[in-house]
Amino acid sequence: MRDKAMSNDVEYMRRALALAEKGRGRTSPNPMVGALLVRDGRIIGEGWHERAGDPHAEVNAVNAAGGDVAGATLYVTLEPCSHVGRTPPCVDFLLDRQLARVVVAMHDPNPKVCGEGIFRLRAAGVDVEVGVLEDEARCLNEYFIKYITTKMPFVIAKCGMSLDGKIATRTGDSRWVTGEESRRMVHRLRNEVDAILVGSRTVMLDDPSLTTRLERGKVKDPVRVILDADSYLDADRRVFHLEDNVPTLVVVPDDRRFEGPAEVVRAPSRKGGVDLRHLMRELAAREITSVLIEGGGTTHASAFEEGIVDKVMFFIAPKIIGGRDAVTAVEGEGIERMAEALPLERMTARPVGEDILVEAYVKRA
């Protein structure tokens, strides 16, 4: 019987994780959370956290069940909160509902919770199981976990490159290195993250809008962050004349200025650029939990050198560009010895149209 119960727990938690996924890109700075209620072997209510400030997943699931959930089991992808945030504590709400059991995928890493929700449920006599599909739950909320535990955003370094590692020709032409399906996936990424970061060279050469363009569904544009360490940026670029409500931030060293229709963010100088760790702390203070770097080789090099990158997503096209002066994916001075190379882990590769997407995480000491 216990094996069957555990199998059911996994099945129901998979459904809860699928529900949580519905909130992707809309809940920041909160986590994605899914919940469902089961009684007598039947799902009686489902819900997910739809956007920051709205009711949490547990409340939505109870409401979908009609309010009467006494004796039911709650499956939830993250420990119910026990503190007052944008909404009241979920634990207080749940304790009034006389649940028989609560199954939780993972503890809430938020220091304001961190086990308190589970402790209070158990203290009230509720049977609580923790750790069902925990790895999947942690992967789902990797942005939130990094942000809430370090006060730094989760950073993805993305690029599209040829098989020989070039992101543009020797003349700077880069349209298009990768195929249409890869570009569509990048727009889905923009729809999920809080901010997109590029260097001023990318803006001046490509004149991008840095918006999200998808065929279906509601889309959101990320906050646009442009590095301009050398006053290279021109205010006539398209990114400064968009008709949306999303801010564009221009990051300059303390001793530089930018005259144009954008908010200026100042950061200390570092190696001819700006201090990116300082910038990440500034973005986190603005409740930006995730950043997608779409810059050129110099921007990527600075990001790796300063240790702000958590994940890489390299789209590799079946093309050879060649040329010692062609732009590579990661430039800068580089390392002297192979032993100094940045190690990656959990690497996967999969086809995206005609391209190959390689994903990996930076291995931390």
Give the helix level as a range of percent: 25-40%
Distance linking N and C termini: 43 Å
What's the arrangement of strands in the largest beta sheet?
A: 11-10-9-8-14-6-15-18-17
Q: Could you tell me the mean pLDDT?
A: 92
Which structural class do you get from the secondary structure elements?
alpha/beta
**Beta-sheet strand percentage?**
25-35%
Low-confidence parts: none
Let me know the largest β-sheet. 9 strands, mixed
Tally of extended strands? Answer: 18
Count of DSSP H/I helices: 10
Order of helices and strands: HEEHEHEHEHHEEHEHEEEEEHEHEEEE
The rough form would be described as elongated
Q: Can you tag this structure with a few keywords?
A:
27% helix; alpha/beta; single chain; 365 residues; 10 helices; nine-stranded mixed beta sheet; five-stranded mixed beta sheet
Q: What does this entry look like structurally?
A:
By secondary structure, the chain is an alpha/beta fold. 27% of the residues lie in helices and 25% in strands. The strands form four sheets. It has a nine-stranded mixed β-sheet, with helices on both faces. Strands 2-1-3-4-5 form a five-stranded mixed β-sheet, with helices on both faces. It has a two-stranded antiparallel sheet with strand order 7-16. The two termini are 43 Å apart.
Concise structural overview:
This protein is an alpha/beta fold. The protein has helices spanning 2-21, 57-64, 90-95, 116-123, 134-140, 142-150, 180-192, 200-206, 276-285, 297-305, and strands spanning 34-39, 42-48, 73-76, 101-104, 127-130, 154-162, 166-168, 195-199, 223-227, 248-253, 263-267, 269-270, 273-274, 290-293, 311-317, 327-328, 344-352, 355-362. It has a nine-stranded mixed sheet, sandwiched between helices. A five-stranded mixed sheet has the order 2-1-3-4-5, with helices on both faces. It has a two-stranded antiparallel ribbon with strand order 7-16.
